[in-house]
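Lab meeting, item 3. Inverse folding demo.
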């Protein structure tokens, strides 16, 4: 069984990979999408929701994650959440 921490760490990695791909594509057909910008990261937000269902405190985390503008935001919010859960 996958632990909550493992699930959320996969979510962070997913966000990082998503951003990395758009950085690579920046000079091709997706040249107008800026890595880390709201327009670019917006489609990733729907995937974050799927990772954050079915555990205590998920609603609060989800509300914050859907406002994230970058993988760095996702990592920070996840870290803050896990610190609260562990303590």
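The presenter then showed the designed sequence:
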């Amino acid at each position: 069984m996958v632990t909550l921490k493992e699930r959320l760490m996969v979510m962070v990695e997913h966000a990082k990979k998503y951003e990395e791909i758009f950085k690579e594509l920046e000079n091709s057909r997706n040249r107008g999408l800026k890595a880390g910008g709201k327009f670019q990261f917006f489609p990733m937000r729907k995937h974050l929701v799927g990772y954050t269902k079915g555990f205590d405190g998920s609603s609060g985390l989800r509300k914050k994650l859907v406002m994230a503008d970058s993988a760095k935001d996702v990592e920070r919010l996840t870290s803050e959440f896990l610190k609260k859960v562990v303590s």
